[in-house]
Amino acid sequence: MDTEPKAPVRYIDRTKEQYDALGYGSYNWAHITEPPPFTQPKDLASARVGMIATGGIYAEGQTAFTFKDDTTYRAIPSNIDSGALRATHFAYDLTDARTDINVVFPIDALRTLRDDGTIGELAPALFTCMGGIYSQRRVNEELAPALVQRCLADNIDIVLLVPV
Amino acid sequence: MVLAAFAALDATEPGQITDLPHRWSSSDDWKDRVMRPKPKATTSISSGDEAATTDDRVQRYETPQYQCATDATAAAISHAEAECLVCAGIDY
Question: Nearest C-alpha of chain B: how many angstroms from A56?
Answer without folding.
Answer: 10
